[in-house]
Amino acid sequence: MGTTGDDTAAHRLRTLATHYIEPARTGTGIRGPRPTEARPPLNINIVSHMAASVAEIVDRAHADAPHAGQAPAVPDGIYQWWRDNTRHLDTEKQQARETVIYRQGLEHAIAMGDFKVIRRHPCPECGCLGMFWRATVGRAACSNLDCTDQLGLTRTWNLARLAHEHIAREFARTTRATI
Asked: What is residue 179's predicted lDDT score, i.e. its pLDDT?
């Protein structure tokens, strides 16, 4: 997923909806006793993740633009709907909007098990590449052994911080390009 051409939050949400809702099969393949309870027909964690993502976008869109109207029924159209209804915002608010969209794209990738999306981000503290996902704490960690906090532990960053840094660099690059 991290190296495909369409690497947007909308594409990742569409992929979650079409390929990751059905729960994964578990087991060794060796036939055993039949379960007494049926598996749920949906992966509830993915469904709740998708619902929370869409609800966050709808809430933020209506806060930024009360005239936004009804959100689209197709979940992957939610991001374009938010952009279309908030084109009038100043640059700071557009940057905040793009940061949320990018963060959600990272969250969708993590939910699909694609941890490679973290690697392309430099560490916000030392700037080195080589970040990796630490699932136990739900944060990205720097691989530089010299990049530690006051306790000597590896620095970790939440996805919101990585998204903020990335979008800030993108906006700065486009601002410099248009000057």
From this structure: 55
Which residues are CB-neighbours of 146 under 8 A, at least 6 positions away? 126
- Tell the residue number behind the tokens 């944060």, with chain if given: 139
Which of these, 154, 150, 101, lies nearest to 123 by C-alpha position?
154
Alpha carbon 63 to its chain centroid, in Å, reads: 21
Give Cα separations from 11 to 1, 81, 87, 93, 121 (angstroms): 10, 14, 21, 23, 20
Is 174 exposed, middle or buried (CB count within 10 Å of its CB: 0-12, 13-18, 19+)?
exposed
Per-residue pLDDT, 174: 80
Mean pLDDT for 108-131 is: 92
Element (H, E) at 133: strand 132-134
More confident residue, 110 or 15: 110
Q: For residue 141, report the phi and psi dihedrals to the nearest 5 degrees.
A: -120, 150
Which pLDDT does position 27 carry in this prediction? 56
Which residue is it, tokens 């969708």? 108
Q: What are the pLDDT digits (tens) for 20-33?
A: 766 555 555 666 67
Q: What is the pTM of this model?
A: 0.81
Give 27-38 as a DSSP string: S-S---PPPSSP
Residues ≥6 apart with Cβ < 8 Å to 95: 167, 168, 171
d(CA 81, CA 83): 5
